Amino acid sequence: MNPTADIGVIGLAVMGENLALNFASRNFTTAVYNRTTARVDAFMAERAAGKPLIGCRSIEEFAAALKRPRKILLMVKAGEAVDACISSLLPVLEPGDIVMDGGNSFYADTVRREKELAKAGIRYLGVGISGGEEGALHGPSLMPGGDASAWPEVEPMLKAIAAKVDGNTPCCEWIGPGGSGHYVKMVHNGIEYADMQLIAETYGYLRDRLHLDAEKIQAVFEAWRRGPLAGYLIDITAEILKVRDAGSGKLLLDLILDAPGQKGTGRWTSETALETGTPVPTLTQAVYQRNLDAAKELRQTGSRLLAPPEEAEPYPEEEQEEVIDALESALYCSKICAYAQGFELLKAAEQRFNWPLHYGEIALLWRGGCIIRADFLGEIKKAYDRNPELENLMFDDYFRTELDNGQEGWRLIAADALLSGVAMPAMFSAVGYYDSRRRADSPSNLIQAQRDFFGAHTFERKDRPRGEFFHHEWNQPGAEL
User: Fold this and answer.
1) CATH homologous superfamily for 7-178?
2) 185 classed as catalytic
3) Of 352, 379, 476, 479, which sits 20 to 30 A from 106 (CA to CA)?
């Protein structure tokens, strides 16, 4: 076969199909292969018909169709499937060829694979991709990292298919070496978990505390689409609240079982944060809450056995607008804290792996195409432009002012939810994160005293330089060592 394909895609689930169509729509001849060849045949006969796509029914045929150096994008399930796919490819690849993993792979696996493939002269990239099915087809956010020598070879293609913002700026830029691309995508997913949980809790407050019907809740989210919360997740929430079940005429949302699923990427964020000692309580609470909510039967038992607080007095109708304004502030402030935690985790990665991460550019990558795209990401970009060494996003003048202006409503909602028995654990964790970061003196001096008392773990003193450690014989007053 005469090599004619500019790029190849392996894996024809919806994301793989849509990305292949995206490449083809940008006039890149694209070879496609799937382990189940019937899927290749169906794709070529239907969605790919008449487009610059080449259907391949074997790995050998796929490799022969690609121009050298071969550029291959894997869109298979994270984990063992990626390793199996690489193993099947190795016999037909040559030194200099480029393999890109576009799935939700764990960044440490990407580090391992890059090192292993480098021994055979194969250049490996971990490309974080966000945007779901629609983004894959029309323009996703792309976060590539790995072998730097491969980037100039694939840059024109990846930037061509990426979402565009601010005129024609692609939401695709080189992240750095090793597993940095998949690491950034992992943090993106952790923020996504938190963002979705915070919005769900806000919906729950409107439904269970203010007792608004679906039409009024939809109107609230519709209004928020034009304010500081503007972004994709608010947009789709407003749309979801319009949809009726075709059979019953009921709101479809009311018929969906409240037992959420997850694929593990949020958990990786929390596990990595624990490894680096980075506090991401809101991101982690969102993962915990999916686990709590998934146990529907256990919650049904709890609803019968565990007593609620006394029923709170309903807000008078004339006060509801004021409460909704406070709720908007609460959601916005909590969202800022979630992003601050995510960027704090990125900073930990830069220090741990010596990756030269550019936080403002990362925020720009998320401005379009991806699930967490939102208007205020532009302000995050400006914050890191003002101070590339910013220690925490909350310390930037813009976000510090936003948090200060919104905290009265934020605290009002959090306190009311707690007293009313409306579960808003992610929002509570965000308030706690803010308060923990803003206080100079915490009560953890007692923890240090306790650790020294029972285990002689030592402590530092406020009246002595950092790095000097002391032990006290607690049962012998004055006996300090």
Assistant:
1) NAD(P)-binding Rossmann-like Domain (3.40.50.720)
2) yes
3) 379
Q: Of the listed 17, 114, 192, 344, which one is catalytic?
A: 192
Instruction: Please tell me the predicted confidence (pLDDT) of residue 479.
Output: 59
443-481 is classed CATH 3.40.630.30: no
What's the chain's length in residues?
481
Q: Which residues contact 329 (CB under 8 A, 6 or more apart)?
A: 405, 406, 407, 408, 409, 410, 413
What CATH number does domain 185-438 carry, 3.40.50.460, 3.50.50.60, 3.40.50.12780, 1.10.1040.10? 1.10.1040.10
Q: Which of 71, 114, 173, 185 is catalytic?
A: 185
480 is catalytic: no
Burial (0-12, 13-18, 19+ Cβ within 10 Å), 171 = buried
Residues of the chain whose pLDDT is less than 70? 1, 477-481
Please check whether residue 114 is in contact with residue 124, taking contact to mean a CB–CB distance below 8 angstroms. yes
Its pTM stands at: 0.93
- Which two structure tokens, joined as six digits, stand for 410? 């934020």
DSSP string, 227-291: STT-BHHHHHHHHHTT-B-TTT-SBHHHHS-S-----SHHHHHHHHHHHHT---HHHHHHHHHHH
